[in-house]
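lol so apparently i was supposed to do this last week
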Amino acid sequence: MEGLMEGSLYRSMLESLNNSAKVIKLNPNVYERLKVPRRALILGVPVKMDDGRVHMFSGYRVQHNQTLGPFKGGLRYHPSVTLSEVAGLAALMTFKNSLLGLPLGGGKGGIQVDPGKLSKNELEHLTRRFTSELNTFIGPDKDIPAPDVGTDSQTMAWMLDTYSLEMGYSNTGVVTGKPVEIGGSLGRDSATGLGVVYIIEKALATMGRKLSGSTLAVQGFGKVGMHAAIEAYALGAKVVGVSDVSGALYNPNGINIGDLVRYTKENKFIKGFPEAEAINNEELLALDVDILAPCALDGVITEENVESIKAQIIVEGANGPMTTAASDYLNKRGCMVVPDILANGGGVVVSYFEWVQDIVWLFWSEEEVRSKLKTIMYRSFDKVWEFASKNKQSMRVSAMAVSLQRLEKAMLLRGQAW
Ligand code: NAD
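anyway here it is w/ nicotinamide-adenine-dinucleotide bound
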């Protein structure tokens, strides 16, 4: 498993695990087991491309821990996906699910591919073959994939169909983040972004402040960032900065997010939106705002640019957007950094709701989903805040500590750490 250490995301996950393990004096046997995944699969996935040539894609599925329930985590399509990155993300899912109190373990998958360069036909073949290769390792009681960067509800629909064909019956609980028509949950699309906003509300409340009128900058305008911006705007926040892969926008009076969403539907990217000034992504991160929500990529705030950050609260919508050193620096400066395993947990919470609804075949209204999500996000924030206040630790150390305490109890009860 040494190869896993090659990636910065895995190393930063381990650093975070180590820091919190020391604070709670985690059982050393529990620590040993959590350091590495249970299972890491490397798959060569053949696809007959539209021009007739066969291309082999590298696919991965890492199953980190299933003490609390089946492995659960997204599937990423991106050219820079590596086994190490997927393994780091799988471990983060274990910690996130434990922290949020869900009956789920942690897993993650990925394929090294630029989905924008494949036709729909090629993407479908890639997804179906990958699912087929994984068939015996996934399932509603084993491992439940969901969308992540570069994948969406259509990807999940193909996975569900392939798995069901091979099992001989329709088995909707094998994936979450599916279209509503085939067993998806209402409110899943906006869940991660909405969860980010609930966490922003709680973070502001610790300072005696409200979301309405606060200024916010969001990096990334995809599944997480766009919905975070929509929900925050609806609740009266002033979204002064937004970015995506095409560039960034700034309007000190606040960007009309409804207009921007309509603009991106027509133009794909935010670039060229007329009601804001064009800036670059580094300038967006450095905006003088109350809250910064990095919701795009990992490793965007590092020792190199951390001194330029002015936000008072940073809520990690993306997984691993900040290095541990950058996070420590900001904490010392009095900035509250709410870590990914808490801040972006809304997605997996509603994935959990979807899985439950598929098992019982009883579907909830969107209001019910949103209200149950709010309860879990608020409760999880409170637990972390309480630990942080009592033990004088950062939110990052505290979130991991609260998560590890639950995992430690469960692993000891199950006799997994002797
Ligand atoms: P996505 O592919 O839907 O969106 C990513 C966004 O980031 C896009 O708008 C893209 O243009 C933008 N982007 C790419 N490169 C950029 C750059 N250099 N600068 C600024 N913006 C850039 O992906 P997503 O599902 O929104 O995921 C984003 C992050 O959130 C990932 O780290 C993912 O693991 C994490 N996450 C996603 C979910 C979920 O439910 N989708 C849940 C938890 C965590």
